Amino acid sequence: MEATSGADELVSGELVSVAHALSLPAESYGNDPDIEMAWAMRAMQHAEVYYKLISSVDPQFLKLTKVDDQIYSEFRENFEKLRIDVLDPEELKSESAKEKWRPFCLKFNGIVEDFNYGTLLRLNCSQGYTEENTIFAPRIQFFAIEIARNREGYNKAVYATVQDKEEKGANNGGDKGADSGGEEKGANQEGEKEKTNKGGEKEK
């Protein structure tokens, strides 16, 4: 529980800092390249922290906001059949999708801080934040989908993959050390043998 609490504080603190880093919500940025770049950098920093979090802690135990239960309940009530392991951008960005998402998002205005700030969202939850696997989404949409992915076990694929790689890396390191030790021991034995033979020749 302590590890989970620390993880909660980490992601919450990062999300808050990202939200306050800029003074305007995503839709108000216009074409100012400096503001767009600053927002993109902050959003990417948040994405990196979140991905590290679900890679190091079992996502099912993560809590992203103080109202996770409400967000998840409202989300599944309104989007019961929405596939979240691999998202279809049309389910988020088409005009008909926006009409359906708008009232859901507005329910959390004043409940979730900076609910409409731009955030990076992965399309395929088993993969990382690559250019091909990332879209922009309002903050509350990110929360809704990622909370559901965590609770329904979809994000566990990332956690399991990273843990397997780390375990294999640790095992390979141990094997390498053992091999190295064996080679060194063999070399020492050969050296001792050579000394003995030379010693025998001198005695003759």
Primary descriptors:
about 200 residues, mainly alpha, two-stranded antiparallel ribbon, about 65% helix, globular, disordered N terminus, disordered C terminus
In short:
By secondary structure, this protein is mainly alpha-helical. The chain contains 7 helices and 2 strands; from the N terminus they run αααααββαα. Helices cover 65% and strands 5% of the residues.
One letter per element, helices H and strands E, the order comes to: HHHHHEEHH
Shape: globular
- Helical run tally: 7
Distance between termini?
A: 74 Å
Structural class, judged by helices and strands? mainly alpha
Oligomeric organization of the protein chains: single chain
User: Percent range for helical residues?
Assistant: 55-70%
Low-confidence segments, given as residue ranges, are 1-5, 7-24, 180-187, 198-204
How many strands, what sense, and barrel or not for the largest sheet?
2 strands, antiparallel
The average pLDDT is 78
Describe the structure.
- This protein is mainly alpha-helical and 204 residues long.
- Helices cover 65% and strands 5% of the residues.
- It has helices at residues 2-21, 33-56, 68-78, 90-93, 95-106, 139-151, 156-203, and strands spanning 118-122, 134-138.
- It has a two-stranded antiparallel sheet with strand order 1-2.
- Helix 1 (2-21) runs antiparallel to helix 2 (33-56).
